[in-house]
Amino acid sequence: MTVVEVLFLLLGLVAVGSALLVVTTRTMVHAALWLVVTLGAVAGIFLLLAAEFLAWVQILIYVGAVVVLLLFALMLTKAPTGPQPDLDARRALPAVAVAGLVLAVLGTTVVAGFHGVELDLDGAVVGSAQTTGATIFQQWVLPFEVLSVLLLAALVGAIVLSRGTARRGGE
Amino acid sequence: MPLWWPLLLSSLLFAIGVYGVLVRRNAVLVLMGVELMLNAVNLNLVAFDAYFRDVLHGGQTFALFVIVIAAAEIGLGLAIVLLVFRTHGQIDVDTMRELADREEPAVAER
């Protein structure tokens, strides 16, 4: 086994373990913090798979912005900091069944479909900021612009949602 | 490394996200499950980008776009969650049933 494979297995174990803790922990704040570990491990896997710029974007956007937003939402909704017994639905068995079915279908598909296919990472073009920026602004400009409009729409939507309650609360 | 390693890891993360979305009652924790699923998709895109040696880096670029969409989604989602919290006082997704299409007798009972 090469160093990359060992690192991948370790990071994958960390990602799956912390993801399991995200969906099973009884303390809401801990779920957000375990999400940081999961996203960080996935960012490490991005680094292994020659997606350098994407790994740092993952750290910046997900760990830096999304998890902070989630923690703020937990704070603003007065989430209790201690362990909660009723965080999960009363009947968890259907959820386990559906998730297991999803895993079975996806897992058998990818393993059966790509068994024996090697992922050769030697000499792969590393997706650095330079190469990613060049491809985005040369080949993918139109989707990029559409996404900026989408972000603007999301911004306006979030402002409208918050303003609506402020006016109603003031009446 | 075999290609199915990252793909299987991505399937695992996706299934865990599905479980989280289905089983959690707090709306913020449901959104965390959605984030896990989006990350699994990104992992798939990056793995295939590395496999195909795409000169346009289509996989990585789309993963970047998915991250942007996830950021927009989480911003709007949390705005809606906070709105629900202000109007209802709690964000338990099991109790939010106002949008259900009720039969006429059920309305009369209220």
TrEMBL record, chain B:
Listed transmembrane segments: 6-22, 29-50, 62-85
Membrane topology: Multi-pass membrane protein
Major subcellular site: membrane
Top class in the EC scheme: translocase
Pfam family membership, one: Oxidored_q2
EC number(s) per entry: 7.1.1.-
Cellular localization per UniProt: Cell membrane; Membrane
Superkingdom of source: Bacteria
GO molecular function: oxidoreductase activity
Cross-referenced InterPro entries: NADH_UbQ_OxRdtase_chain4L/K, NUOK/Mnh_C1-like
Keyword terms of this UniProt record: Cell membrane, Membrane, NAD, Oxidoreductase, Quinone, Translocase, Transmembrane, Transmembrane helix, Transport
Catalytic activity line of the entry: a quinone + NADH + 5 H(+)(in) = a quinol + NAD(+) + 4 H(+)(out)
Similarity comment text for this entry: Belongs to the complex I subunit 4L family.
NCBIfam families, sorted: PRK05715.1-2, PRK05715.1-5
PANTHER family (UniProt xref): NADH-UBIQUINONE OXIDOREDUCTASE CHAIN 4L (PTHR11434:SF16), NADH-UBIQUINONE OXIDOREDUCTASE SUBUNIT ND4L (PTHR11434)
Function comment: NDH-1 shuttles electrons from NADH, via FMN and iron-sulfur (Fe-S) centers, to quinones in the respiratory chain. The immediate electron acceptor for the enzyme in this species is believed to be a menaquinone. Couples the redox reaction to proton translocation (for every two electrons transferred, four hydrogen ions are translocated across the cytoplasmic membrane), and thus conserves the redox energy in a proton gradient.
HAMAP family: NDH1_NuoK
Subunit structure comment from the entry: NDH-1 is composed of 14 different subunits. Subunits NuoA, H, J, K, L, M, N constitute the membrane sector of the complex.
Protein name: NADH-quinone oxidoreductase subunit K
Natural source organism: Nocardioides jiangsuensis
Gene name for this UniProt entry: nuoK
